[in-house]
Amino acid sequence: MRGTSLVRRLIIAVILSQLLMAAGLLAAGEWFTRRQLLTAFDTALRGRAATVAASVRYNESGPGVIFDPALVPPSADRRHPDRYEIWERIPGRTGLIRVASSTPAPPVAVTNAGGYADFRIGGVPYRGLLLRDLPVLDTEEGLRAPLPQLTVYYASPTLDLQQRVTALAIAIAGSSLVLLLLAWAFAAWAIRRGLRPLRQLASQAEQISVHNWAFEAPDPARTTAELAPLASALERMLAGLQAAFRRQHEFLADAAHELKTPVAILKSSLQTLLQKPRQAQEYQESAEAALEDVERLEALLARMLQLARAEQYADSGAPAEAPVPVPATCEAARGRLLPLARARAVTLRLEDGAAGAEGELAVAADGEELELVWTNLLENAIRHTPAGGWVAIRCRRDGGDAVVEVQDNGSGISAEELPRLFERFHRGDSSRSRETGGFGLGLAICKAIVEAYRGAISVASQPGQGTCVSVRLPLAAGGGRQPSVAEQRLEV
Amino acid sequence: MRVLVIEDERRLAENVAHGLRENAGYAVDIANDGEQGAFLASTNEYDLAIVDLMLPKLSGQDLVRRWRSEGSRLPVLILTARDEKATVVSLLNAGADDYVAKPFDLGELLARAKALIRRGKGRPAPSLRVADLEINTVERTVRRGGRVAHLTPMEYRVLEYLAHRPRAVVSKEELLEHLYDYNWEKFSNVIEVYISGLRRKIDAGSEIKLIHTSRGQGYALRDESDAAAGSGGGG
Question: Is the ipTM above a cut-off of 0.90?
């Protein structure tokens, strides 16, 4: 995988969040521990200062107080002993008189509001407490004389506290590091595993090519909430593309196949002509025949283009059109085919159907395309109806649909042939002989156009009795002119 | 030689027939659907059938299958717009001898037709030889001892047919059957006219006579001295 990797990015995100958590844990742990230890240290410091103050005795025999340094409890840390200094305030006198101090004495330090001061002695951290106006505890009963008050300054090294805090920090950091490594490994495994459906989908999608349209989303991708829409969209798109591609391919193959015979005729005609020198009249006749062949070829190509155009909307539906009155298109189609009907001695009539035909019979479609459908159907009907027969076109309303029927009393279509009737280039076997002049595209074109407008086309036929093709198209929502359909009969 | 063309596309059938008549000098009958073709084949003698695959009523493949099941040895050349492998294989397996895909080259079609007729007669070489008589069926020229003999088209057709069946006695009826298409009035005495023409142009001036008449039976093209020398040796 080149470029950015989703897995790598997710792992980095996990590691970063873990690091952030470890750092927070470390800071909080250190702060909380230090506070706890400091509280305990301060309590102990106050106790020691009070002890020192308590060891000061009232001097019965003279002024001042007596202090015995031996009574001071030993320091917890022998290497860095505690330091203290004691002063007394004699009532009625100003200033403090120094009573005693450790050797060496604690340095002067600025205390905070609580009376504490932090300082260093020879690089060792100390914390001192200044207690003011302490009474001398060792007094005798009933002694009224004003007593001196003591001020005690006591400092202990905080080295041990600092070391404990540092040890805790190292413990937290160390365990965080181990957890981080574990998290890394787990995240890498879990993310790779979690992204497996995506990888499978990608590798499946990689197999798709112009020659291989088969795509079935792997089940894990299909059942993953984030991938399911992608998988189904891919499947839908490919199925649609494949269908369109196959239609194109089939059309091309059919077209190539159908073009072979007319090309063979033309080619053999010209080759025959060139076999030996001929009379001018022979050239003339052959050129005329070849021209006729080319015209037929041209007609075939025009039909194929009509079909290709109609079929391009087979899936998506035709673009929206203004409503077109159906009866008018039927009339126009009948008008076009009257000459053919006359030539073949077939009666061609336009009928209106049921009584409900007065309503607006307009469908949203291209008028010329509708006319093409009726023309094709009528032409087919006329060609398959013997002289003296009749062909009728009628339109009516049926619920929300316009229904157009083309009926004849011609040769009919056998039951085996009915299902294949709308296939491209299908010619009923018996009628395949070229007298009917068709290419087998008319009904395929009709079907494609009707379906593009979301309609349906169906055929009912009785061999020997006749055929009825009915086209059903949804009526336009509004608009359309009042149809002026009157029954017309034309005897030919 | 007489060829049956079965093709529903009339213009194509006429072009093929025209080519066969003009280029190869064959007699040609045309049928426009499978059933008509089957009828003509059963009532006339043909040396080759050229059959379209997609025919109304009876398809080319069904036609071939029917002929083969009846034991017919008629060489069959299929015209097809489908040249997919499967179609060709099933055609040949049905008993067809060869096929040409549309749109075909007329020259190729004619060459294949001639080759199939030669094979059908058991004479695969395009040049036929009887003693010092040489008939080139591609160029339609005849030489006797190196000298070119100028024959009329009908004389050539009679000679070519006899040369395809050397030594056999061919009846007048057989000649008529194979040299004229359906539309001709058949008069047996025209054959005698062509035979005498051939004798004049080929045998005159040569010591060895090649054209022989078996009275009441027909005609044969053979080298009698050769037959006498190698009696018993066939072919």
Answer: no
